[in-house]
Amino acid sequence: MSPPKPDLLQGTLDLLILKALSAGPLHGWAISKRIQQLSREMLTATQGSLYPALYRLEDRGWISGLDAESAEGRRIKVYRLTALGRKQLAEQTDNWRAFSAAMNHVLGTS
Amino acid sequence: MEGLRRLARRIRMLGRRDAVERTLAEEIRYHIECETDELMRRGLPRDSARRQAIVAFGGIEQIKEDVRDVRGTRAVDDGVTDLRYAARVLRRNPGFTIASVLTFGLGIGVATAIFSVVYGVLLRPLPYAHPERLMALWERDTSRDRDRNVVSLENFEAWRIRAGSFAGLAALMPTSMTLTERPEPERLVGAEVSTGYFRLLGVSPALGRDFVEADATGPLVTILSDGLWKRRFGGDPAVVGRVITVSGKPCTIVGVMRDTFDPPRFGWLGSQALWFPMVISPDRHAWGRFLLVVGRLREGVAIEQSRAELRAIASQLETEIPADKGWSASVVPLKTEMTGDARTTLLVLLGAVSLLLVMAVTNVGTLTLSAMRKRGHELAIRRAIGATNGRLFRQLFVQTRDLVIRTDGAPESTMPLLRSAVAALDPSLPLYAVTTLPDLVDTTLAPERFTMYVLTAFAMSAIFLAAVGVFGVLVGDVTRRRREIGIRLALGAPGSRVVLLLLRRSLLCAAGGVVAGIILAVVLGGMMTTLLFGVHPADPVSLAAVASLVLVVATTATLLPALRAIRHSPLSALRQG
Fold first, then answer.
1. What per-residue confidence (pLDDT) applies to B67?
2. Is any Cβ of chain A less than 8 angstroms from the Cβ of B22?
3. What is the pLDDT averaged over residues B270-289?
4. Do B26 and A56 touch (CB under 8 A)?
5. Are B419 and B431 in contact (CB under 8 A)?
6. pLDDT in tens, B533-561
7. What sign results for the dihedral spanned by CA atoms B118, B119, B123, B126?
8. Please, which pLDDT band fits residue B29 given cuts at 50, 70 and 90?
């Protein structure tokens, strides 16, 4: 059995997706893999929440979906960070840093 | 901005809903394949890899729903389902459908008609430049507290010079004259207007020129209305410069107004066929008060400011002019001035039609409830009865005033006789506004009668709606209680008693509504009497007629299904229930 993984905090999935896309466009499955990889397998975006989140972010205009081709030549949908999304990423990263610093402070960890 | 963009995106999405759904399904399939490949790379056999990938993904349909939620298309999808369901229900209940359609059609139709009249008269701005700054100025008789008195020439001139809150003031007065032109002379009503009147309104003639200062003292000139120009001069563009005879004096046509020009009608000003420059002769200063005054507020000046200024000027004038003792001034928006009378009437009609619409909606709602058999019977009946006794009822049988004026012979046949008789006396004498006495009375009472006809139509519609509502609810109710009827019959209750029981319940509810309605009718009727001509509150005949109609409908609606129920054997009623 794998060790217990922390649940994603409300709202953090959006930030993780934005971060995952900051290095370049990815398709849905690749985004979930990238989140796992970046978090050293600590965080998993449950698939059930990933796609609604992608559509939500697209609806807000932070990411945009485009048609692309996979390595095997299949038409797939990849997601790309928009300028608005990049701004959001910077903003939310700052927020998160401030928040986690405050939490650490409260909990007495360094 | 962002919200707008999102909305636009959603609308686009809706248009391509199927495409988006396909894309999503494709995305999920691809996701699962990738996951399967990944698991196979880790050594799982294909089948279990695939199974595990699907399990890990979760409920696919649920995810699709979630995505639809996010995209905002779900409401539409749900709406389509609801509509389909509704269509099915309606097809199965044609009676209910017809009643609802009639009810809604009637309610919406009448409401739209009245709302458009209200818009046209009350809400649409006057057809002049910056109409909100146009005001009517009056003298105020402080001793008798009458604040809309016509203005003396002297005061008009003083106001014009001293009132700084107005960009301009113009005076006008109705005038009537005889146009002595072939083929026959005609009596016309027009207006004398001070120089700058048309410019003040922001209108200009279509042909020729506006009045100038010199016209007031020079030879007589006139500007024709579009209507008169077309009717008497055949729309001849060369009419400008032509000399016509007005009340025996030569008068030069200098202009023709546009067909879109609708002159302000207020005070004693009616329709105007032509205009003359206002003559300011010394003797007119002795005429007393006779002018209507229109003013245009300077930009940025509030109406209150202008009122204060005009009052201050008026109190100065009180000390300067002996005749002005006890006189002040008032400023009223021209719009208010022009719609003043119609306003009350229209608001009453609007109120009535709103009630009618509420009734229509309530009715369909009640019928729906009854059809769906989801609600308790008391509530439904109470609603239907409540609507029944809308305050319009009282007017249903209001007797129109009997106009006991008689006419001998059709006016068309007597016209030539009259004309030749008059011509024999004096050929230049015009025969104008020939009308029969009843016609004259009709015209005078026309607005009141119109209001009354419309209200009567409303009342009829209201009665109809109420009857449909009460009938539908009660029939549905009794039908629903067939099982109970069966039990009572099976236990040995005589049919007549069961029917009486049902009847008592229905009539009790109906009677409650009738009483409430009568009270409302009497109270509101008292208020309406002051507003409308020919309406007698608490007219016992109308009230009794409406009350009995409601009770008859309630009785019929109960008896029909009740009798049908007891005619069948108790067993079948029980089984059907």
1. 72
2. no
3. 86
4. no
5. yes
6. 555 655 677 788 888 888 888 888 888 88
7. negative
8. confident
Q: Which of B99-113, B160-174, B547-561 has the highest mean pLDDT?
A: B160-174
**Is B9 near chain A, with CB under 8 Å?**
yes
By the CB < 8 Å criterion, does A68 face chain B? no
Contacts of B108-115 with CB under 8 Å at 24 or more apart are: B108/B357, B108/B360, B110/B353, B110/B356, B110/B357, B110/B457, B110/B458, B110/B461, B111/B353, B111/B354, B111/B356, B111/B357, B114/B346, B114/B349, B114/B350, B114/B353, B114/B454, B115/B350, B115/B353
Pairwise CB contact (< 8 Å): B58 & A29:
no
Give the closest of A48, A56, A59 to B63, CB-based. A48
Q: What pLDDT is recorded for position B155?
A: 93
Give B246's contacts (C-beta < 8 A, 6+ positions apart). B177, B178, B179, B180, B220, B222
Instruction: Give B4's contacts in chain A (Cβ within 8 Å).
Output: none
Helical residues (DSSP H) of B202-323, grouped into ranges: 226-233, 303-320
Rounded-to-10 torsion of CA B127, B132, B133, B139: 90
* A-chain residue closest to B8, CA distance: A59
Contact A77 B69 (CB under 8 A): no
Nearest-neighbour CA in chain B from A27: distance (Å): 8
CA distance B348 to B535: 13
Average pLDDT score over residue span B155-160: 94
| Alpha helix stretches (DSSP H) within B42-183 | 46-57, 60-71, 74-92, 94-118, 153-162
Give the Å distances, CA to CA, from A23 to A34, A51, B163, B289.
10, 20, 73, 87
Mutate to test the interface with B, among A29, A33, A57 (most CBs of B within 10 A): A29
Q: Is A37 part of the contact surface with chain B (CB cutoff 8 Å)?
A: no
Residues of B in contact with A28 (CB under 8 A): 27, 30-31
Torsion of CA B227, B230, B232, B236, to 10 degrees: 140
Per-residue confidence band for B379, with pLDDT thresholds at 50, 70 and 90: very low
Predicted confidence band at B447 (pLDDT cuts at 50, 70, 90)?
Answer: low
Closest to B557 (Cα-Cα) out of B328, B370, B431? B370
> Which residues in chain A are contacts of B11 at CB distance < 8 A?
none
The model carries a pTM of: 0.49
* Radius of gyration in angstroms for the set of CA atoms belonging to chain A, rounded to a whole number: 15
More confident of the two residues B576 and B209: B209
Between A76-90, B297-311, B407-421, the lowest mean confidence (pLDDT) is in B407-421
B14 and chain A in contact, CB less than 8 A:
no
What does pLDDT average to over chain B?
A: 77
Tens of pLDDT, residues B221-263? 999 999 999 999 999 999 999 999 998 899 999 999 999 998 8
| pLDDT over 50 (residue B403) | no
Q: Which of residues 446-465 of B touch A (CB under 8 A)?
A: none
B568 alpha-carbon distance from chain centroid: 52
**B85-101: average pLDDT:** 67
pLDDT digits (tens, 9 = 90+) for B484-494: 888 888 888 88
Q: What does the block give as tokens for B358? A: 């509420």
A55: contact with B, CB 8 A cutoff: yes
| CB spacing of B66 vs A51 below 8 angstroms | yes
